[in-house]
């Protein structure tokens, strides 16, 4: 009896396998791959920036510096742009030197007023963080002890730090030229 049941079961399973083998599919086919289109549409919706890298606040986060406050006129914006334009370090004729203490490195060095804090640190073979080297990200940011950064450095360009952040002592070492002695902690971001 058991053998008969087993035999019938085996035959039944074989029959099912044969039927499934010859059965036709549902006719379903994978749709066209649209992932590329989706990526292109997303890319088109992101505003263009000069330097797309992780810390760039122009990509997805934070308000762009120099944004027009509600009620501000076009004339006011132009004035702000002029103020933020920075200065040309190559136009410096009277080269002066300042004592800059690099707190993380534990050393004080002389830095010329036509040399950036980043370049001065690199000349010492210190591992200084940076990315764009144009004042357009935050990678090179450092913190100056003892007050507003503008009392100690001039930025040749600054597309990233706000007035408040500079008032708190933050600077972009890749575009910051010393105008006084100070102590800085590199690799410090607001
Ligand atoms: S490295 Fe990007 S702002 Fe200095």
Mind explaining what this structure looks like?
This protein has 190 residues and is an alpha+beta fold. The protein has a domain at 89-186: Beta-grasp domain (Ubiquitin-like (UB roll), Roll). It is 29% helix and 16% strand. It has helices at residues 2-22, 35-45, 74-84, 117-123, 163-167, and strands spanning 97-102, 107-112, 141-144, 153-155, 170-172, 176-178, 182-186. A hairpin with a 4-residue loop joins strand 1 and strand 2. The longest helix has 21 residues, at 2-22. The protein is elongated. The termini are far apart. The model is unreliable at 56-84 (pLDDT under 50). The protein binds FE2/S2 (inorganic) cluster. The site of FE2/S2 (inorganic) cluster has 12 residues, from loops. FE2/S2 (inorganic) cluster (FES) binds at residues 130-133, 135-137, 139-140, 160, 172, 174.
* H/E topology pattern: HHHEEHEEHEEE
The percent of residues in helical segments reads 25-40%
C-alpha end-to-end distance: 84 Å
- Major sheet size, sense and barrel closure: 5 strands, mixed
Radius of gyration: 32 Å
CATH architecture field of the domain at 89-186: Roll
- In order across it, which strands form the biggest sheet? 2-1-7-3-5
What small molecules does this complex bind? Answer: FE2/S2 (inorganic) cluster
Structural class: alpha+beta
Q: What overall form do the CA principal axes indicate?
A: elongated
Described by its quaternary structure, the protein is single chain
* CATH homologous superfamily grouping of the domain at 89-186: Beta-grasp domain
Domain 2Fe-2S ferredoxin-type: 98-190
Keywords: 2Fe-2S, Electron transport, Iron, Iron-sulfur, Metal-binding, Transport
Cofactor: [2Fe-2S] cluster
Biased composition (Acidic residues): 75-85
């Amino acid at each position: 009896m058991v053998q008969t049941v087993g035999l019938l079961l085996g035959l039944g399973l074989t029959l099912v396998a044969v039927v499934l083998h010859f059965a036709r599919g549902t006719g379903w086919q994978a749709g066209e791959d649209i992932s590329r289109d989706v990526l292109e549409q997303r890319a088109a919706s992101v505003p263009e920036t000069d330097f797309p890298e992780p810390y760039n606040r122009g990509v997805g986060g934070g308000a762009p510096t120099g944004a027009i406050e509600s009620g501000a006129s076009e004339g006011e914006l132009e004035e702000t742009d002029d103020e933020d334009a920075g200065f040309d370090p190559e136009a410096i004729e009277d080269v002066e030197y300042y004592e800059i203490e690099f707190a993380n490195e534990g050393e004080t060095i002389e830095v010329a007023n036509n040399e950036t804090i980043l370049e001065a640190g690199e000349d010492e073979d210190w591992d200084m963080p940076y990315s764009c080297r144009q004042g357009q990200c935050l990678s090179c940011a450092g913190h100056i002890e003892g007050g507003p950064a503008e009392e100690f450095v001039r930025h040749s360009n600054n597309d990233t730090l706000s007035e408040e952040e500079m008032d708190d002592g933050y600077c972009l070492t890749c575009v910051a030229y010393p105008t006084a002695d100070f102590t800085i902690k590199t690799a410090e971001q607001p």
